[in-house]
Amino acid sequence: MTNIGAERFEKVFNKFTNLKEINEGILLIESTNGEFSFCKGYGGKGLNSPFLMASITKLFTTTCILILLEQGKLSLDDKISEHFDKNIIKGIHVYNGKDYSLELTISDLLFQTSGLPDVYLEGKDSVRSRAILEDFYITFIDMIDMVKNLKPHFAPRKGEKAYYADINFDLLGEIIGNISGFKLSEAYKNYIFEPLGLSHTYLPENENDGIPHIYYMNQVIHRPKLVISCGASGGCITTAHELMIFTKAFFGGKLFNKNIFNSLSTYNKLQVSMGPIYYGGGYMQIPLNGVISLFMGKGELIGHSGSTGSFAFYYPLKELFFVGDINQMAKAALPIRLSMQLAMAAK
């Protein structure tokens, strides 16, 4: 990788931070071997500035599931009814008059193939629409009740369908707690933060835990109650420096057996609103040779983005990692577009 490569990355990042709705941002790019590193901040954001990971948290939840799988404490084929009071989950998935609730498996949740609806975006009183206006707590039981009031999109494991829904990972978070005996914050700490030496990455448990602000267009909003409520699906805080350490470990097999990870690379296309994204076992896959890139890209990105502008992707073709945040809740597609253009600039 030459300096010309760094100049291309800087040009792409500058194009996005010049958008009127972007007030701050941070980008860190590294090669697998660490010989190449590029960092650029905007609006006062630096390598160690905290930001909300949002749905990148799902990679941490996936890590815990894989570690428990490796320890023999669960199977991806386990029915989730084995890990919950049946009265809690009964009625969570009723499709065409049939109740599939007790047939859902851990795999259905991890691969987003359960067909469950997404309370974050769906319904007239969706979590996102409320979050724009106010801060509020929402309990796990509240979320389950909201799901029961929405219609599933298909029967579990129906064809090659996937539907992105936070509730899948909220359920996985509860399962991690039930099996490990740890609170989710402790599970993250024991399985991820301490082994990797991450001292500035944490899952907040109260409003005083240091929860960064979020931008909705040019409005600064502070939603600590909601962030705390998101837990396993989107509540973690990190820095670009530590997110890079984690992302390299996740895709490099440092946290769990690489053979287990290889079994996750079955990808299904997500709903149309998710654009070019496919979903594997706990992470996104974005092919770079499709319509959205005008068929000009090569290879794929694997990793995750967050609805508040965060991103953590690996580009295997060039052995590059892209992590960072552009802190914008109003346009969830921006970090995906940024990551794709960074990959296409890596010539």
From TrEMBL:
Gene3D superfamilies: DD-peptidase/beta-lactamase superfamily. It holds the Pfam family Beta-lactamase. Residues 38-330 form the Beta-lactamase-related domain. InterPro entries: Beta-lactam-related, Beta-lactam/transpept-like, Diverse_Enzym_Activities. Coiled coil: none annotated. PANTHER family: BETA-LACTAMASE-RELATED. This is Putative penicillin-binding protein PbpX. It comes from Clostridium liquoris.
